[in-house]
Amino acid sequence: MLVGGIETSFGSLHGVHTSQELEMSLHSCESPREPDKIHIKRVTAVEGDLVRPKHRNELLLVPKGCCWMESDNPVNANDSNIYGPVSRGLMKNRATHVIWPPSRWQRL
Fold first, then answer.
1. 43/92 Cα distance (integer angstroms)
2. Beta bridge pairs of residue 30
């Protein structure tokens, strides 16, 4: 969970076992290009799925041990459409709540 830009860990991927549970969930992950940065992205495809990257006219098979992660923010879409599939080894925690701003507090 990110609190005021500070990452706090309240869970891990150890509780996520199936592709169905992983798909469409929000996760923090190390940036594949900048390992010192943490991104929060939505998993939109898992290993074995076919995806069509934005701005490309080709299908891509998500490799074993990877997932396709996309930004919910189209203005700041530094995601798999830019850097490709993300190794599950780079994934850190699953987001469970929105806590900021307080008016949007909710369970995911």
1. 13
2. 38
> Where do we find the tokens 């991104």?
39
Q: Tens digit of pLDDT for each residue in 15-70?
A: 444 555 676 788 888 998 998 999 889 999 999 999 999 888 899 999 999 999 99
Find all residues with CB under 8 Å of 50, minimum gap 6, and list them. 59, 60, 61, 62
Q: Collapsing DSSP states into helix, strand and coil, what is residue 83?
A: helix
| Domains of the chain, first to last | 2-107 (2.10.109.10)
Cβ contact 107:101 at 8 Å: no
Query: How far is it, in rounded angstroms, from Cα 102 to Cα 92?
Result: 24
